[in-house]
TrEMBL record:
Species: Thermoanaerobacter thermohydrosulfuricus WC1
Domain Gfo/Idh/MocA-like oxidoreductase N-terminal: 4-121
Keywords of this entry: Oxidoreductase
Limits of the GFO/IDH/MocA-like oxidoreductase domain: 132-281
Protein name: Putative dehydrogenase
Family annotation (Pfam families): GFO_IDH_MocA, GFO_IDH_MocA_C3
Length: 385
């Protein structure tokens, strides 16, 4: 099997996570990285043990050895970099959101199709083995008709008014924050697992800290001491800390999603409950190797991730035996394995349907978020057309 040489653009939190996952595949070589300038790129290359580095991503795109590019930058750069990479004839794996709006996503989809290039959006949460198993349970009718879906995605990384990050600013992250950042993962996962689509939304947004305190120096500078007024500037916040969205689905099901980034004690918890006419299931991302199965006239059970107990579709993305937990880093590995096997087998040239989230899925979540923002602003139900 030949090795595919890959370039990573952006080396904050998620870029190194991509690198670690790719290296675990064995047939991918992370050949180059790019960052905001040459000095930072050099420092990150040494830290991550990558041979080539660039202070300008356009120089990386000129590298003829690079077949595929991962876009791991702040949101506002995704569209531009992804477009330039496609025009340079590189396959593209992009962090979500794919772009700042659905119109930009439409253009990326068009270019990728014209150039017959593989494209993917990093909705990695689909790739917990139990999510693939749950999908097959529903497809095979184990839950019966889906009546209702409820859940949440809650975090506490913005719990204090002194917590600050570029994601708080619309010019860098977009018009929505909590819904676009974490709600998009919840919505993508639910539509993937159930096979049904959201077709109407009614949203309630809240910004609990309308003013936040932005440190004037790197946070490390203040280690061991409290901020004083001269250490920060007050910044008006226009994106949501919290949202609850009522949902209607195209099969007649109803539901709701809550997202909250100031939820004390919740580090990164995605949770859902799916209620059918025969059974129910629920799943908690902080206990990703357990799937609860509920019955009215029988014993409830907890299915523990074990390849011998899973549907063959889920078994394909399970690397370890029962009792050996697989978590967040494994989801990226399993997704990238499907993407790069698709490339190696020329699936894009043969017209084969990809078994991973593509730019079309990225566009879907952007459009859903736009309609949810519209609903919150206009205080009414909005139909997803």
């Amino acid at each position: 099997m030949r090795k595919i040489k890959v370039g990573i653009i952006g080396t904050g939190f998620i870029g190194p996570a991509h690198i670690e996952a790719l290296r675990r595949l064995g047939f991918i070589e992370v050949a180059a990285i790019a960052d905001v300038n040459q000095e930072i790129a050099k420092q990150k290359a040494e830290l991550l043990n990558v041979e080539k580095y660039y202070g300008d991503y356009k120089e990386l795109l000129k590298d003829p050895e690079i077949e595929s590019v991962h876009v791991c930058t702040p949101n506002y750069l995704h569209y531009k970099i992804a477009k330039d990479a496609l025009l340079a004839n590189k396959h593209v794996i992009c962090e979500k959101p794919l772009a700042m709006n659905s119109s930009e996503a439409d253009e990326l989809i068009r270019i990728a199709k014209e150039k017959k290039l593989v494209n993917a959006v990093h909705f990695n949460l689909r790739f917990y083995p139990l999510m693939h198993h749950a999908k097959k349970m529903i497809e095979e009718g184990e839950l019966g008709q889906i009546f209702a879906i409820n859940g949440s995605y809650q975090q506490d990384w913005l719990f204090y008014d002194t917590d600050f990050n570029w994601r708080l600013l619309p010019e860098f992250s977009g018009d929505s924050r909590a819904v676009a950042d974490i709600g998009s993962h919840w919505l993508d996962l639910i539509e993937f697992v159930t096979g049904i689509k959201v077709n109407e939304v009614c949203a309630d947004f809240a910004t609990f800290y309308p003013i936040r305190k932005k440190p004037l120096k790197p946070v490390e500078t203040y280690a061991g001491k409290l901020l004083s007024p001269e250490d920060y500037e007050e910044v008006k916040i226009e994106t949501e800390d919290y949202a609850t969205v009522l949902l209607k689905f195209n099969n007649g099901a109803h539901g709701s999603m809550t997202v909250n980034q100031v939820a004390a004690g919740r580090k990164n918890r995605l949770y859902f409950e799916i209620y059918g006419s025969k059974k129910s299931i629920s799943w908690d991302s902080e206990r990703p190797n357990e799937l609860w199965i509920g019955r009215r006239d029988g014993t409830n059970e907890i299915l523990i991730k074990d390849p011998s107990l899973l549907n063959p579709y889920a078994r394909e993305i399970t690397s370890f035996p029962g009792g050996h937990n697989e978590g967040f880093p494994d989801t990226s590995k399993q997704m990238f394995k499907k993407v790069y096997k698709y490339i190696l087998q020329d699936g894009h040239l043969k017209g084969e349907t990809p078994d991973f989230p593509t730019f079309e899925d990225g566009r879907r979540e952007l459009f859903l978020c736009e309609q949810i923002v519209k609903s919150a602003k206009e205080n009414k139900w909005v139909v997803i057309e």
